[in-house]
TrEMBL record:
Keyword Transmembrane helix: yes
Full protein name: NADH-quinone oxidoreductase subunit K
Keywords, comma-separated and alphabetical: Cell membrane, Membrane, NAD, Quinone, Translocase, Transmembrane, Transmembrane helix, Transport
GO biological process: ATP synthesis coupled electron transport
Length: 106
């Protein structure tokens, strides 16, 4: 197997993920784009594990499992935040999220 093909695929996946994070307004689609980036990193880790096993041993698969666990935690927390925001505002547009709370005038 040529190592260039998985690396090029990972670069394409990561580029699509970055594009999705920068251009999408829907929070669910942004989370999906982040998942694409994490899957690209997993592909790089597993490919590096297969191609460079003589020097370091099999560690890429272990790191890939940690990234999968991190992705699962990110999805759980991210979806909880998005669902709570949807319940409050009935929209999940990222650019409509108020990052600060203005005090009420008395």
């Amino acid at each position: 197997m040529h190592a260039v093909i998985p690396y090029a695929t990972a670069a394409l996946l990561f580029g699509l993920g970055v594009y999705g994070v920068l251009r999408r307004r829907n929070a669910i689609l942004v989370l999906m784009a982040v998942e694409l980036m994490l899957n690209a990193v997993n592909l790089v880790l597993v490919t590096a594990d297969v191609t460079v096993t003589a020097a370091l041993g099999h560690r890429g698969g272990v790191f890939a499992l940690f990234v999968i666990v991190l992705a699962a935690a990110e999805v759980g927390v991210g979806l909880a935040i998005v669902l709570q925001f949807y319940r409050m505002r009935a929209a999940v547009q990222v650019d409509e999220v108020a990052l600060h709370h203005e005090p009420e005038a008395r």
